[in-house]
Amino acid sequence: MLLYSKTTKFLIKKTFSKKSIRPISNNFVETAGFVPKIESYDYSNKKLLLLADGKYMTYNDVNNASGRYSNVLSKQFGIQKGDTVLCRTSKTSDALALYLGILRLGATYVPLNPTYTKRETEHFVNDAKPKLIVTLNQKEDKTFCDTSTVKHVLCEQQLAKDSTKFEPLLDVESANPEDVACILYTSGTTGRPKGAMVTHAGLTANGQICTDIWRFHSNDINLHVLPFYHIHGLFISFNCTLFSKSSCIFLPKFDAKETINYLPKSTVMMGVPTYYARMVEHKELNKESVKNMRVFISGSAQLTPNVFEKFEQMTGHRILERYGMTETLVSTSNPYEPVNQRIAGSVGKAAKGSNK
After folding, report:
1. Which residues lie below 8 Å from residue 181, measured CB to CB, with a gap of 6+?
2. 74: Cβ–Cβ under 8 A, 6 or more apart, which residues?
3. What is the pairing mode between strands 221-224 and 247-250?
């Protein structure tokens, strides 16, 4: 079952006055400006977006990579505005470029946990009715070609290789505010997981709201350790980077020691409570390791007062807890300032701009 998120409708009229907008992918087409230094990055006038897969990528690099994905999907596989593409992929710079490439075509992006079994995935395929599946397990997912809608099942590595043979498609398909940009599946607490349809307007409005309330700016370096198939990592954390035209360290998965090692090179981190619970078990987490950090944000589950207090004792930082849903994205947040009003066990008040 697909659920249209009516909660985004009030944002559409507030945020957009034109009949047509460009997809959210247009926000990353930014190549100039000051670049924060990460390690020994030798930067030019190109704005740094990512440190991922052991390489640096500017906004222009990602713009071109996503444009190549748009081109190969359009010309080789017939993907166009209104089509649905389901992705069970690894967390890489290619997956990011694929996501943006799908949006810039005006197609709908459906991310899935790549560890789902074939039986679990079958429910999502039957419900979302994708035209194309991009997967890290092509052999297993090939059987979905037997369904009425799936025309192609592609290996993520092969698609990435094929995309390099194409020139970037730099045009961005015009999208209406209420066009569905992405379908994300709920956790299924009231039955089988349901698809929440998130519009371009919803993505854009929420990206602007989160960027504002958490004071993201162009000099930020976002330590991204979250999964890329969930709203927390895909829309909340990464979209704050896009909307602030800042930079991101893109780690493939969370590891407490590795995360702590990257903290001195970062200014912002978002995580789930279990991440913070694991981090406080390491003595390397201390005030010196977080001296460049300005905020730690937690969501997706309840942060216990014990972890909140222990983290503050070790680092001097009070974690900023917020609340959101797949259908609505971020709804409430503790304040960025004053810091002493961030309360353990509370998710704060309605996020400024989300209740208008």
Report:
1. 23, 24, 103, 108, 109, 175, 198, 199, 200, 202, 203
2. 80, 105, 169
3. parallel
**In whole angstroms, what is the distance from residue 101 CA to residue 72 CA?**
10
Alpha helices in the chain (DSSP H): 9-15, 59-77, 93-104, 118-128, 138-141, 156-163, 200-213, 231, 238-244, 256-262, 273-279, 305-315
207 vs 275: CA distance, rounded Å: 23
Identify the burial level of 333 via C-beta atoms within 10 angstroms of its C-beta, where 0-12 means exposed, 13-18 middle and 19 or more buried.
Answer: buried
| pTM recorded for the entire structure | 0.87
Q: What is the DSSP letter of 318?
A: P
Task: Tally Cβ neighbours within 10 Å of residue 303.
Answer: 25
Helix (H, G, I), strand (E, B) or coil at 163: helix
For residue 350, list its beta bridge partners. 332
| Contact between residue 86 and residue 159 where contact means Cβ atoms under 8 Å apart | no
* pLDDT of the residue at 177: 84
- Condensed to tens digits (0 to 9), the pLDDT of residues 5-60 reads 443 343 334 333 344 344 454 544 433 233 333 443 333 436 788 899 888 998 88
34 close to 244: Cβ distance less than 8 angstroms: no
Low-confidence ranges of the chain (pLDDT < 70): 1-46, 146-147, 188-189, 354-356
* Angle at 47 (CA atoms; ends 104, 29), nearest 5 degrees: 20
Question: What pLDDT was estimated at residue 173?
Answer: 73
Q: How far is the C-alpha of 266 from the C-alpha of 257, rounded, in Å?
A: 15
**How far from chain centre, in Å, is Cα 294?**
20
In order of their start, the domains of the chain are: 57-175 (3.40.50.980), 201-350 (3.40.50.12780)
Res 8: pLDDT: 38
Q: What's the confidence (pLDDT) of residue 19?
A: 40
The whole-number pLDDT of residue 54 equals 85
Q: Which two tokens stand for residue 354?
A: 């989300």
Cα 24 to chain centroid, rounded? 12
